[in-house]
Amino acid sequence: MLAVEIIRKKRDGLELSKEEIEFFVKGVADWVIPECQISALTMAIFLKGMSKQEIANLTLAMKFSGSVLSWEGFDKPIIDKHSSGGVGDKLSLMLAPMLAACGGYVPMIAGRGLGHTGGTVDKMEAIPGYKTTPDIEEFKQIVKEVGCAIIGQTTSLAPADKRIYAIRDVSGTVESVPLITASILSKKLASGLDALIMDLKCGNGAFMSTLEQGRELAKSIVSVANLAGVKTSAIITDMNQVLGRTIGNAIEVEDAVNYLKGVNREARTHEITIALASEILVLKNLAKDLDDAKAKLEEALNSGKALEIFSKMVTRLGGPADFVDNMDKYLEKAPLVKPVYAPKEGYVTGMKTREIGLILVSMGGGRTKPDQEIDKAVGMTDFCQLGDKVDTKTPLAVVHARDEASYEMVKAELYRLIEISDESKGCGNTIFETIRE
Fold first, then answer.
1. How far apart are the C-alpha atoms of 436 and 154, rounded to whole Å?
2. Which is deepest, 76, 115, 211, 317, by most CB within 10 Å?
3. What is the pLDDT of residue 110?
4. Cα–Cα distance measured from residue 360 to residue 374, given in angstroms and rounded to the nearest whole number
5. Is the CATH number 3.90.1170.30 carried by domain 333-421?
6. Packing angle between helix 305-316 and helix 290-302, nearest 10 degrees?
């Protein structure tokens, strides 16, 4: 069997067999197949698509390309959340300890930034000393002791996906339902989950720009996951604007900790966080119904239990023991912090969210190649939301930059990407719909 013939077959729109998919994935995991051929096949899949059976075969081949975790002896449900990616999305940082506080074990194996979207692992690595690559036994022990652990993809779990994921980021093949489904679920299935909640972002800042595309991906993930024995639901949420008012790695960590503290719980962020967490608590019978789940989650937040779990997780993974109380001492700060004021009075009625995400990449806070080091300090705070009234003394955002040139670049881009009108069009929907089995 030859990799090039598999590429040609998919290029011509033909269905790949289970054996062909397994051959190619094994070659990826064993580093026998070079990046150019991986890139070629991902582009062929992007252009020609895959059948449901092909997606299932790809998912399982990637799952079994490495180790599969076992949680034998753990006495609580193994649950997790995943997002399809957006701008300003720091929900995993809050959700993991909240779910742990409500009776679940949350072994969250997260990704790095992909395209215009931020990555959970990059955010956690803004915490000095935080280790995102513990060995598997240490990872499992931390989950058992603390209730949750947020780490990066290990070399032993779905290693084929790790290579493919990095190549998709730089080859223009990110927005593919088969590849997104297989990437997400190969890692989650290899993690040994009992249940998964999917945050499916939809809008001009998401990989799925329309509700129809969002439904297609949500149904694909829910269908494949449930067939594989992992109870899964998906909630389609809005990404036609930045989620919350912060963008950037260290900046979003601080925002997430303040959310857990109750210092600042931005309304849209809170609505989506509670909806996702409630759905999976009900899915695994950790709550009687959605109302009961919401009450348990509010208690986990207001009692400080979720914050305490986050703090313990940071410490067990090598971060400072006093991190949540002394974030200013540990999180890197950009040397220039300066507002970009609105060019005129009016209401924010639109924004090109994907391109706003790319601003962070241009500032150095995201990647243009797989092995690139990123600047954890840069980003934006006080970011405007749809429906906000602004004027020449109200900032569209406060820019955290390395220098004046970077600030001026951001300012020019924000003026181009944010629409201001005389009349408000409202803030738009936050949650579109829930997809269940």
1. 30
2. 317
3. 85
4. 10
5. yes
6. 70
Query: Which CATH class, in words, describes the domain spanning 79-327?
Result: alpha beta
Q: How far is CA 263 from the centre of its chain?
A: 23
The structure's pTM equals 0.89
Instruction: Give the E-state strand segments of 57-100 in sequence order.
Output: 79-83
pLDDT of residue 317: 98
Instruction: Copy the structure tokens of residue 184.
Output: 């997400």
If pLDDT is split at 50, 70 and 90, which confidence band does 207 have?
A: confident
3-class DSSP assignment, residue 404? helix
Question: Residue 265 in 3-state DSSP?
Answer: coil
CA atoms of 339 and 199, how far apart (whole Å): 31
Band the pLDDT of 114: cuts 50, 70, 90. low
Distance CA 38, CA 35 (A): 5
- The token pair that represents 76 in the structure block: 């609580």
Residues 95/260, Cβ–Cβ less than 8 Å: no
Residue 14, Cβ density class (10 Å: 0-12 exposed, 13-18 middle, ≥19 buried)? exposed
What are the residue numbers of the active site? 80-83, 120, 168, 183, 187-188
For the chain, domain boundaries: 3-49, 79-327, 333-421
